[in-house]
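Re: the request from the purification team.
They wanted to know what the chain is likely to look like in 3D before they choose a buffer screen. I agreed to run a prediction and write the result into the notebook, where they can find it.
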Amino acid sequence: MPAGTDHLCIRPRGVLRGAVLTLVFTGVLATAAATGALPRQEGEGARASEARPAARGGGEPPTVDSAALSRAAAAAMADGKSGKQAAEEFVSRSGDRWGAVYDKREYAEFERALDGSYTGVGLSAGRSGAKGVRVTRVQEGGPAARAGLRAGDRLVAVDGRPVEGLSVSEVVSLLRGDGVPGSSVVLRLERGRAAWTQTLRRARLATDPVTVRRLDDGTLLIRVAAFTKGAGTRVRDAVRAAPAGAGVLLDLRGNAGGLVAEAAVAASAFLDGGLVATYDVKGEERAVYAEGGGDTVRPLVALIDGGTMSAAELLTGALQDRGRAVTVGSRTFGKGSVQMPSTLPDGSVAELTVGHYRTPAGHAVDGNGITPDLAAGERAEERARTVLSGLGGGS
């Protein structure tokens, strides 16, 4: 499954001790940041925001006074202005690169998506050349699939607006539209020398963030696209059901993150309890732990890239720091901040940074990402399988 499919229309979050630990995958999920550091592929569920991540190795983002934010929104409303817009301006000025403000409909969509559903047409988009956009995946059974769209089709325009020169985040926002099931979107497409216009109606679709298959050499390939509800259990069950000694290739490339609790459950498949990550909320130190009873012997290689984000980075960091997996690929995105929601006077919701995550060895994730043990580019999967074979996990 390619990175950033349209069913990733959520802002991933894990609730621990009442805090909503939002690990946004900037630009691919619903709180995307339109920057050059984005993964190559994105889903239609995403939308661009003005939050911008700091450069690699940058400092941790500041926190925002939620009470002051609420007062600013209330003052704007008293003057007959938009409270949401005032809040957005307040957050933008604060320097909190992950802070964002959402209206009721947007936030409700995020919550529904955590349950494994989303509104869209069932396609993923990615960059094609310097300015073009192509379809990278079509979800089986979705509106795009029923209309005959295929991976590789070039996307020329959305609702009459040419997409050439737009960021993929902007294209994604056009595809998502109002997010209402039954609403229509008109696509202009090209395939080879053929060109046509296709009208699709958005629908409520189910997601399948975890795919499992056995490779020819006996390796178990587990691809996790996002840590939505139940994803961690799917990973753990797949490992438990695998033949003894069979190596696991855990593909986290393009994983936008998700619920921290689900990432911890996935870690429990490979760890016998212990620390997954530490984090702070307004200076109070807390921790995330794996459950006991995991398989600590089975050969394991984790595939990562610049689209591996947030909760997926926490899992990667735990497996790497604790010597449980060899990581192969490229440096991860670097999203490791804790965010908490605050309801504003007009009913919109602001999610503000209140803390930061660190790996078991104490490495800060936010702004830094995780460097793989073995760097690999386009042939990363092939190299990962070679490494796994050397560990005794494949023929």
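For the purification team: The radius of gyration is 21 Å.
Please add any questions underneath this entry.
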